[in-house]
Structure formats: structure tokens, C-alpha cells
């Protein structure tokens, strides 16, 4: 050890005060990264700035937007999407996509509705079976991905089509219709509705319970991501799969669990939709998978994986909610919504690109 | 077969007398892939606190050698001993458990993750009971900082993504990580290959630091100068066999370079170059054993002899 101590000062490369010499930059010494730059390197900063901008914008142009009840509506819209966006974002940080996430929500709701109705069971049985089915779909996606080594884009595109077709076909077999039968008069419905789809009044304004779940899930996901071993592994498998494997990270398990997380989210949103509307349209959910991915990207998650946060997607979903409702409040043609979203996505992608360059600049 | 490690075959004996038993030893080891013989009859001994350099051109069998020692492949002939007992690893994990750590060329780091997270990746420290079990971030940062400092690496901000470090620094973090996680034998796969002169120097210093901490180091390289700066023993591989095995006291850097380059081939190459470029062969330093120094500059042999470097070389040779 004494030898080492002797070596230590000599070996310490250039002095830790590179600002003096321009050559310091070439040595990759990012010592002088200022507080501001470090803040800017947070994945969700771009989204936060955008969210404030969008809020101010609609606050100015759409008077109804300013009311508390409008905020409740915006938050509700954001939460239904946001609950799904969180696991999708974790999966993206882990380096994979799930294109079946949109229809998986419908699959979960249909499973619970049809099973309970056809067998005249307590709705809770359907809810539990739907949970198992959703987790199984996620596990299958992850397992197939790891087993075949195919890109997740392809694997989940396959499961997307399978689920979409099965949703329609199975529903028609049992109901002869494109929607499931109403389960509102069945055992346990009221209890389940109070858990998945109730409202909470605060200061005379009703807020849907999903808003609170959304924020709680985001907090849990943040904790998971930043404070647990599993979170470390998520970043690692998304950032460099081979390196992660070389140092002993269970890459396959991590990815499978991430896909199952998406299944969990799909189940939760599916249950919310089922107990809100009593019935499920079997064709629903198509296209939502892209909205989840867009919200995650706007929230600062890299498409290529290895970078992002759970807070960012919350902000991304909030922007989504503000835009979709704000356009209505401003009395614009809602057809513009998608165009607006597209612009937001491109801007977010550019900001992310810039942020990543800043963060890894030599 | 299971005699203790001090009874060494061929190559290893030449090290200083009384040196401790080898941590890792290969005796006439070889590896065939089907009917292709990638490695044959290789003797190698790695002792604590010593740097064993393995040199060789591309395709000389260096990678195969590392893969055997690090547990990625199994040898098909000869013996592989760890602490004097014959072993046969089937996964890198087993090698790691015996204290043999490999720092690969790609370094096994995740560029966008902070330095300290990379340092502990796969072996994170946690605290608290299960549902609340969480990363012990303070301890990890402190430990990473201490370990890096002990290796002479001072980083001001362990939160910076490891991708912002230079190649040399990342290499050093990878070495420090291996040392921290109980490596007794460190295999470095061409750590200086992609680095500039200055960065290579930094890495060489850390190799020396690891050696001084009592680790046995296997330093794979094709740069004889880098090898000679830190090496205690040199093995040159050529076409899958051991061309040279010598202790530092027995060989000069010029001889090493010549072995590495393959003296006779070099002469032939020189003549070819002379024809192609119309350079006077007489102007070029001789390529055989008499004047091996020419290649030691690491520059193309066809370089005009009038340059200072070449002139100096000549002088050095004359003195020999």
C-alpha cells in the first residue's frame, strides 16, 4: 500500500484544475461542468420547459383553460395515458419498445369483462385473471425477445397484431358484438369501481382517482430507477447490453421484468376503463402505443435506451393532456391535435439529441 | 500433476529466484478449434506483484490465450493451473471467483451512466430490509472514490457519465474496479491499443500501480515499448506458439521488438518496400538480428534514414 500511496500523486494525470489549460478539455476532464449545465443534463428539463410554455400558451389563449375543473380534466386525460407511459418509459430506458402496449390495455379489460360476464363470477375474479394475462403477455414479449434476439420492434409488432385480432375475434365469439357486455350489475363491481375509477373532491372540484395513482406510480418508478439495484440494471441493459452482461447483470431477466411492468400498467389502465364505462370496445387502444412512446420521448427518454427518468414521462403525459384539452378549450379544430403533437415530438427529439451531446461532450 | 506451483515449466523459471508461487500458470497449454490449432505449447506463469507481457501480431493467438485464462474457452491440451491446482473454467464467472479479472478492450462500461454506478454495476451495495432495500449510494460513492484514488485516479465528479472520461481514464476505472472486486490476477487486453501517447502513459502508470498492490498482471499488447516499460517477463507469441519467453534481465527492448516484428520477414518487407518506393536499401537499417532497432521506433520501415530518430537508432545499435 505504501508503494501505492507513493505512486498515487505522480499518477494523477493532469491536475484537477483544467479550466486553466485548454488542453484539459481534450483529456475528457469535465470538472468544470457548471451547476446549470448539470441541471440541463437532467433528462426531464427540456420537457419541463416545454410544459411551462404550453401551459402559459393555453392559459393566455383559452379562458376556460384557467378554471380548476379544466385542470382536473387535463390531469385526468394525462393520467390515463401517463400511467401507461411510466412502464413504457422504463422499458425504453432498458433499450426496448413495446408496440403492443396500446391494445394490451384493451385485451386486459376484455379479459376481465368477458370472463366475469360469461361465467357470472365476482368481477374480482376477472380482475385477477386479467392481471395474470397481462403479465403473461409482457413476459411472453420479453422471453421471445431474449430467446430470438430479434429487435423488440418486430417482436412486439407481432404481438400487437395478434392481440388486436384476438380482441376483435374473441369478443365477437362471446358477445356477437364488437363490445363486451356491461358488467355494472355484477358482484363486486361497485367495490372495484371505487378502487379503479372513483373520484375525489378537493375544494369543490372532483379529481379522478387515476391522477393520484399516476403520481404515486411515478414516485415509485423514480425510486426504483434511481435507488435500487434493479434500476441500475435498467440503465445498464439499455445503455450497453454486452457490458452489463460482462459484469454480471442478468440482462434477460431485467428485460422480461420490464415488459411485465408494461403488462402491469396495461392491466391497471384496462381496469380503470372497464370500471369507468362498464363495457369495453374491442377495437380500442390501437395507436395509443405510439402516444406512450411519444410522451416518454418528450419526457427526455432516449429512443436508443440507457437514458431517461420516470418524472420526464409524467411531464410528457401532462403536455399531452394540456394540448389535447387546450385545443378544445381554445375552440380550435381538434383535428390539429396530432399535428401539434408531431411538432412537440420533433422538438423534444432535437432537445434530447442536444442534451445527450452536452452530457457526453469530451 | 498436482505438484505445487514452484515447479515451473520452461519459461517461468527465469524469474527472480525465490519469487512466490505463480497465481496462474499454463504448462504446454494449447487450444484447437476443430482442426485449427490456434494455440500450441504455451508456457506462462503469472506471479503476484509481477507484470507478464504477452506480445504478438494480430492472429498470433493472444486472444485465445486470454480466453482460456478468463474462462471464455477451455484449453484442449496441456495444463492450466490456478494456485498450483489444475482447473478448467466453463464460465467467466468461475474465473472471476478465483480472482481472475479481465479488462476487455471495450471495457465493459455503460457510457451514459455515472462513474460510480459503472464502478459498482452488477455488484451494487444495498442497505435496508427487502421491500425498502435500496442502493447505499453514499458508501458506493465513497468506496469508488477511495479505490480510484488508491490507483491514483482523481475525479472531481463521480456523477459525470463515464462516457465523458477519456479512453485512458475509462481504462483506469475498469482496472480499479477489477482490483476492488478482489482480482488477484488482472488480464488487460490491449489496454493501450486505441490510445494516444499521453493516455497510454497514464494507463501504464496504473498497470504499475496495480502491480505494486500485489496483483499479478497479464498485459496483452503489440507494442513492445509499452510492454518493456512495465513488464517483468515477456512472452512473444507467433502463429500460435511461443516464440520467446524471457525475463526482463535477459532481453533488451530492441531484441523484443525484433522478435515481435519477426526479423527475417522484416528484411524481406524492407526490400519489397525499397523496390516499390525506389528507396535505396542501403539507406534503410538492416532488418536482421544485428540491427533490430529500426523497427523499434514503431514507424514504417520505409522512412528516410536521414531523420533524427533513425540516426539515433543507428548509433544505439553501433554501441551494442
UniProtKB/TrEMBL annotation, chain A:
A molecular function GO annotation: transmembrane transporter activity
Keywords of this entry: Cell inner membrane, Cell membrane, Membrane, Sugar transport, Transmembrane, Transmembrane helix, Transport
Compartments reported by the entry: Cell membrane
InterPro entries per record: ABC_transp_permease
Major location (coarse): membrane
Pfam families: BPD_transp_2
Region (Disordered) location: 1-29
TM helices/strands, residue ranges: 45-62, 74-92, 99-117, 123-146, 153-174, 207-226, 247-270, 290-307, 314-330, 336-355
Source organism, top-level taxon: Bacteria
Record's GO cellular component terms: plasma membrane
Membrane topology: Multi-pass membrane protein
Function description: Part of the binding-protein-dependent transport system for D-xylose. Probably responsible for the translocation of the substrate across the membrane.
Protein name as it appears in the record: Xylose transport system permease protein XylH
From TrEMBL, chain B:
GO MF entries: ATP binding; ATP hydrolysis activity
UniProt region (Disordered), positions on chain: 283-320
Domain of life: Bacteria
InterPro entries: AAA+_ATPase (IPR003593), ABC_carbohydrate_import_ATPase (IPR050107), ABC_transporter-like_ATP-bd (IPR003439), ABC_transporter-like_CS (IPR017871), P-loop_NTPase (IPR027417)
Gene3D superfamilies named among the record's database cross-references: P-loop containing nucleotide triphosphate hydrolases
Domain spans labelled ABC transporter: 24-264
Keyword annotations from UniProtKB, A to Z: ATP-binding, Nucleotide-binding
Keyword ATP-binding set for record: yes
Protein name as annotated: ABC transporter ATP-binding protein
Amino acid at each position: 500500500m505504501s508503494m501505492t500511496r507513493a505512486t498515487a500523486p505522480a499518477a494523477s494525470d493532469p491536475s484537477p484544475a483544467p479550466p486553466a489549460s485548454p488542453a484539459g478539455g481534450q483529456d475528457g476532464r469535465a470538472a468544470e461542468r457548471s451547476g446549470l449545465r448539470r441541471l440541463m443534463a437532467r433528462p426531464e428539463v427540456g420537457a419541463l420547459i416545454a410544459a411551462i410554455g404550453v401551459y402559459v400558451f393555453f392559459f393566455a389563449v383559452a379562458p376556460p383553460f384557467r378554471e380548476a375543473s379544466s385542470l382536473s380534466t387535463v390531469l385526468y386525460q394525462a393520467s390515463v395515458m401517463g400511467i401507461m407511459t411510466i412502464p413504457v418509459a422504463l422499458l425504453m430506458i432498458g433499450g426496448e419498445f413495446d408496440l403492443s402496449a396500446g391494445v394490451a390495455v384493451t385485451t386486459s379489460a376484455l379479459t376481465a369483462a368477458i370472463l366475469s360476464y360469461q361465467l357470472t363470477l365476482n368481477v374480482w375474479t376477472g380482475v385477477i385473471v386479467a392481471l395474470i394475462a397481462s403479465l403473461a403477455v409482457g413476459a411472453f414479449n420479453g422471453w421471445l425477445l431474449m430467446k430470438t434476439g430479434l429487435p423488440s420492434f418486430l417482436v412486439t409488432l407481432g404481438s400487437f397484431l395478434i392481440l388486436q385480432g384476438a380482441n376483435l375475434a374473441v369478443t365477437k365469439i362471446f358477445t356477437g358484438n364488437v363490445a363486451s357486455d356491461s358488467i355494472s350489475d355484477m358482484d363486486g363491481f361497485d367495490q372495484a369501481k371505487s378502487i379503479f375509477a372513483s373520484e375525489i373532491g378537493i375544494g369543490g372540484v372532483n379529481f379522478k382517482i387515476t391522477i393520484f395513482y399516476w403520481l404515486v406510480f411515478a414516485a415509485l418508478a423514480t425510486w426504483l430507477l434511481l435507488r435500487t439495484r434493479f434500476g441500475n440494471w435498467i440503465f445498464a441493459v439499455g445503455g450497453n447490453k454486452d457490458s452489463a452482461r460482462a459484469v454480471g447483470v442478468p440482462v434477460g431477466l431485467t428485460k422480461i421484468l420490464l415488459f411485465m411492468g408494461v403488462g402491469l400498467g396495461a392491466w391497471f389502465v384496462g381496469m380503470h376503463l372497464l370500471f369507468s364505462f362498464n363495457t369495453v370496445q374491442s377495437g380500442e387502444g390501437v395507436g395509443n402505443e405510439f402516444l406512450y412512446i411519444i410522451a416518454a420521448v418528450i419526457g427526455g427518454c432516449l429512443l436508443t435506451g440507457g437514458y431517461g427518468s420516470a418524472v420526464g414521462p409524467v411531464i410528457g403525459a401532462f403536455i399531452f393532456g394540456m394540448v389535447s384539452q387546450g385545443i378544445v378549450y381554445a375552440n380550435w379544430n381538434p383535428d390539429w391535435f396530432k399535428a401539434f403533437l408531431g411538432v412537440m415530438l420533433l422538438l423534444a427529439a432535437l432537445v434530447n439529441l442536444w442534451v445527450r451531446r452536452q452530457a457526453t461532450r469530451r | 500433476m498436482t505438484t505445487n506451483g514452484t515447479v515451473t515449466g520452461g519459461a517461468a523459471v527465469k524469474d527472480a529466484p525465490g519469487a512466490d508461487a505463480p497465481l496462474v500458470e499454463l504448462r504446454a497449454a494449447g487450444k484447437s478449434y476443430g482442426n485449427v490449432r490456434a494455440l500450441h505449447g504455451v508456457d506462462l506463469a503469472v506471479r503476484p506483484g509481477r507484470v507478464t507481457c504477452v506480445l504478438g501480431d494480430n492472429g498470433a493467438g493472444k486472444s485465445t490465450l486470454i480466453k482460456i485464462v478468463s474462462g471464455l474457452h477451455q484449453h484442449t491440451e496441456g495444463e492450466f493451473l490456478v494456485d498450483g491446482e489444475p482447473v478448467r473454467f466453463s464460465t467467466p464467472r468461475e474465473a472471476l471467483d478465483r480472482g481472475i479479472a479481465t479488462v476487455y478492450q471495450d471495457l465493459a462500461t455503460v457510457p451514459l451512466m455515472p462513474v460510480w454506478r459503472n464502478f459498482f454495476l452488477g455488484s451494487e451495495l444495498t442497505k435496508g430490509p427487502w421491500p425498502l432495500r435500496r442502493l447505499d449510494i453514499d458508501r458506493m460513492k465513497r468506496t469508488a472514490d477511495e479505490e480510484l484514488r488508491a490507483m491514483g485516479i482523481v475525479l472531481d465528479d463521480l456523477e459525470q457519465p463515464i462516457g465523458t472520461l477519456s479512453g485512458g481514464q475509462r481504462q483506469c476505472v475498469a482496472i480499479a474496479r477489477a482490483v476492488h472486486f478482489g482480482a488477484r490476477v488482472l488480464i488487460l487486453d490491449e489496454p493501450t491499443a486505441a490510445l494516444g501517447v499521453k493516455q497510454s502513459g497514464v494507463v501504464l502508470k496504473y498497470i504499475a500501480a496495480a502491480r505494486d498492490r500485489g496483483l499479478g498482471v497479464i498485459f496483452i499488447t503489440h507494442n513492445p515499448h509499452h510492454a518493456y516499460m512495465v513488464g517483468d517477463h515477456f512472452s512473444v507469441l507467433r502463429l500460435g506458439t511461443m516464440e520467446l519467453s524471457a525475463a526482463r534481465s535477459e532481453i533488451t527492448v530492441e531484441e523484443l521488438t525484433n522478435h515481435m516484428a519477426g526479423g527475417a520477414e522484416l528484411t524481406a518487407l524492407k526490400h519489397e518496400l525499397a523496390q516499390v518506393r525506389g528507396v535505396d536499401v542501403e539507406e534503410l537499417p538492416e532488418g536482421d538480428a544485428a540491427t533490430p532497432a529500426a523497427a523499434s521506433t514503431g514507424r514504417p520501415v520505409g522512412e528516410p534514414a536521414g531523420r533524427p530518430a533513425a540516426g539515433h537508432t543507428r548509433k544505439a545499435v553501433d554501441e551494442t
